[in-house]
Amino acid sequence: MMSTGPGPHDLATTRLILNDRQTATAKTVTPEFYAELDNEFASFKGHCLIAQHDFSEAWPTWEMHPEGDEFVYLMFGEIDFVLWVDGVEQIVHVSEPGSYVVVPKGVWHTARPKVPTRMLFVTPGEGTLNAREPEGEAL
Question: Which CATH architecture has domain 14-131?
Answer without folding.
Answer: Sandwich (2.60)
